[in-house]
Amino acid sequence: MSNNLTGENLFSFSDQKLPALFIGHGSPMNAIEDNEFSRSWEELGKTLPRPHAILCISAHWETRGTQVTAMTQPETIHDFGGFPQELFEYQYPAPGSPELAKLVQEIVQLTKVEPDLSWGLDHGTWSILTKIYPEADIPIVQLSLDRTKEPAYHYALGKELRALRNRGVMIIGSGNIVHNLRFLSFQITAYDWAIEFDTLIKQLIEKGDHESIVNFRNLGKAAQLSIPTSEHFLPLLYILALQEETDSLRFFAEQFSMGSLSMSSVCLEA
Predict the structure, then answer these.
(1) Which parts of the sequence belong to the Extradiol ring-cleavage dioxygenase class III enzyme subunit B domain (predicted)?
(2) Which of 2, 157, 174, 259 has CB 3.0 to 4.6 Å from 124, enough for a Cys bridge?
């Protein structure tokens, strides 16, 4: 299938609505390791349709204001420390899509989306996509998280992206439902509060109670421990905002890493 981005009809409306995904990405080491998480992403890639392009909302790109990458060849960003040299040398040379970036700017009315030519693909994006689409030949654009805004803003912005699912664009949120690095542990089991919150969020998703999820700060002590800072949780709100009544819902990779990282992931399919 061709991904010629010069075609003016590349992002025209289609009867096929693409899936939307929230993926718990965990450690960047998952990009180069063969483990239960990386294998679940590989298996996912075998079942997904091939999109014209991908729009990713990653926990690892926070800005003041909302920005979208608009370069033709985004660099692979190694935004971490303390890992093996092999990981720092890893490249995911997927192309960008100025055309998709422009389309995002046009359809978003909630705020002015500014084009960015300096960021690239951070590990929240490439560590999962290298397993889902290992050929790195699908154009990718990242949308930033405005750190100055409340969760309800991010959910509302996600709703404005719905039309992209019918225009050949797969939207992926990359973060973690539970993400507390202060409590990382090499024990096999997760903390009780982490399991409690992960379970609660999945139950609320199944009920369609997005309001309670958007207002996660009201969900008690387990929520406070699970989400000490919101950047890894906010990408989930974008994906839930895309959900429509006709979508089927399934969870995958429903496990924990290092005690306080939930790898639970969500797939919405028409």
Answers:
(1) 23-246
(2) 174
- pTM for the model: 0.95
Torsion sign over Cα 82, 61, 156, 171 = negative
Condensed to tens digits (0 to 9), the pLDDT of residues 158-174 reads 999 999 999 999 999 99
Q: Is residue 15 part of a domain?
A: no
Residue 11 domain-assigned (yes or no): no
Give the Cα separation of 267 and 44 in Å (integer): 10
Measured CA to CA, the distance from residue 112 to residue 103 in angstroms comes to: 12
Q: pLDDT digit string (tens) for 226-262?
A: 999 999 999 999 999 999 999 999 999 999 999 999 9
User: Residue 105 is inside which H or E element, if any?
Assistant: helix 98-107
Domain that holds residue 127: 20-269
Going by C-alpha positions, the residue among 146, 151, 137 that lies closest to residue 54 is 137
How many domains would you assign to the chain? Answer: 1
Strand ranges in 43-86 using DSSP code E only, listed in sequence order: 53-63, 66-69
